[in-house]
Every structure is written in C-alpha cells, then in structure tokens.
Input
Amino acid sequence: MINAFYKEMTGKESVIRQFFDYSRKRAAEFGPDSVFDFSIGNPSVPAPESTTESMQRLLREKDPVSLHGYSPTLGQPTTKEAIAESLNKRFGMNYGANHIFPTSGAAGALSHALRAVTQPGDTVIIFAPYFPEYIPYITGTGAKVSIVPADTDAFQINFDKLEELLTPEVSAVLINSPNNPTGTVYTTETIRRLASVLEKKQEEFGHEIFLITDEPYREIVFKGTDSPFVSAFYDNSICCYSFSKSLSLPGERIGYLAVNPKAKDADLIVPICGQISRFTGHNCPSSLMQLALETELYITSDLSIYEKNAELLYNALTETGYSIVKPGGTFYMFPKSPIDDANEFCWSAAKELGLIIVPGDSFDCPGYFRISYCVPTERIEKSIPLFEQAFRKYK
Output
C-alpha cells in the first residue's frame, strides 16, 4: 500500500510551480512575448568560465576511476579543507575541515542541520515571510513549526512576537538572510539582538538553541547594504549554503553545511550528518562537483545584473504607486498588492496581462506578492507598462 501521507501531499502542488507551469504553457501557445515570467528564482546569468573549465580539466586530466569513484561519506577531504579555509579568510572564523559537510544544495544542508539538532516533538521557529519548503523540511524531522509574524515595516525581525514564541520546547531557530521572498537583509543590529535573545533563553531553559542560517543569496548583496556573517555573532550556529545562485549552478545541486567550531558538540554534528544520510539516502553530492569547486570559492558569476534590475523595477513600481520595502540583495522584491487579496491580483489582473507573479499567501504573508527579477533587463523594461496597467485597474 502506498504511503497515505505522501499521497496527500501530491494534491498540494507548490503555487510557485503552478505559476511557472502556466507561464510555459502560455509561451508555447502564444509565443514568448506574451508572458513575463517572474515566478521562479532560476539564475539568468551563466556560470563563470573558470567553473566550467575546472570541471573540464578534471574530466581531461584526472584518473576517471578515481574521479568518478564514491565520495567519502562526509565529503571530499580536500574540498572540505578548501571551504573551511575560504570561510576563515573571508569572515574571520576558525572552521576546520571536520566542521564542513558537502550537501545537495542548501535544501540538503537544511534537512541535515534540522535533523541533527532536533528531536521529534521539538519546536523550530521560522519567520514570515518564509520559503514554503521550510514546512516539509521541519515537519519531516518530527519537529513542530512555530511562525513569527512578519514585520512588514522593514521585514527585519518582529522581536516582541519572537520572545512570546521562545518556549522551552524550542531547539532551533531558522533564518534566511538575504531573504527570499523580500530581498531584505538582516542588519548587524538585528543579528546582535537576535543572538542576545537566544543566549538569554539558552541560559533560562538550560539547553542549547541552535541558530540555522539559510544563505544561498549571501553573495547577492547590493552596494551599501549591511550584511553580516551571522555565525560570527552566535556560537550555536549552523550555516547552510548553496552555490546555486553565486555560481549559477542550481541544477548541479551543490552546497554545504558549516558548523560553528564554538557550537556545543561541534565536532560531532558532521559525523551525525553522515548517519542522517543513511536514513535519507543523501550519500553526498557528486565527486566531480565537489572537486571542481575547490578553485572557485572566491569568485562568483556576474551578479551585477540583479542590482541593475532591482533598481529599475523598484523605481518604476514605486513611481506607479506600489509600496515596497527596497531590497538589499537577492533577485526578489515583495511589493504590497494594490488590493488586500493578493491572490485575486496575481491570478486575475496580473495574469491576464501576462505578468506571472506569486501571491504572498504562499510565503505566509497575505497582501503582498513576489517578483523574481532574475530575467534579462529588456524583459523588465517591457513589463513595466503592464505593472502600471495592473495597478490602475484597482487604483
């Protein structure tokens, strides 16, 4: 008999994917100029030439039996050493190779981190608006989800609500900065205050509260934005990273988990992740991708297009009348819908014009919508009159 739980999940398709699939069908039927797809966060710039060359060089020069052999359970030792060294140089940390666990993107890192520091029945706190997949990542461990309502003034942290929800059952707090879907970045002040709150609660409760940071957009930060390395401010922290955005490699599914060397049981968490893999079938990302990254840890794709697109779109939409907290990074922005029902706005007015945007209800923040502007700039320019038409329909 098939699993009833997962059978039920098949009827709950991601809203983001629904919009994305509609966009593809409309483009196939009416042509690509009939639709402006801002639904999904797929990088629009190519991977650096050096990254491709790194893979090609390994394929040409390395012994194929060795190159394509099984990776060690805890990851390629030289790759782990290189990642630890890069984090130490960039952020003044003290990671060792034993604190690094290569994963299948940030999703793999988050899934392992959450299992490593929670027990079934524990509570994990997240902050609205949040990436919808956090819910299955957390509930799949047997833990419960507690959601801090959004601070819609600045999309920083609603500390009053956070402190209300910080009960003894909380074993982990998960944050995402730079943030999907808002594009905002938690400031140093915000992170210092969060660390202080968690340290006091750890002492009060008599157990650790791990801070898990989801950081796939770490390198997409705009000029003048305060973007601290979170793990430098809180000992019991685990950083989850992906090269999907920084190197434009989403399809390669490569990332890592980095355990703060000062964390409780820091030397045990990566070995525990190896045991978690036995239950999830993770068994490491490909050996080729791990080895190829060793020379690519200090570079990125040309990410400047995202800041250019953000500035163009933000200026045009705010002049039209949309209310937006200006993004400090990523390739997302999160305008307030011109009507309270963002679902109606996205599914009706915008969709009729060929604008494919995602309602904020999907991120537990009704009344807003997400624009993923990782598209060619000319597509942004052509879409602006349509955003104006959609706004005028209600205002």
In short: The mean pLDDT is 94. The CA atoms of residues 299 and 362 lie 33 Å apart. The longest strand covers residues 170-176. The two ends are 53 Å apart (CA to CA).
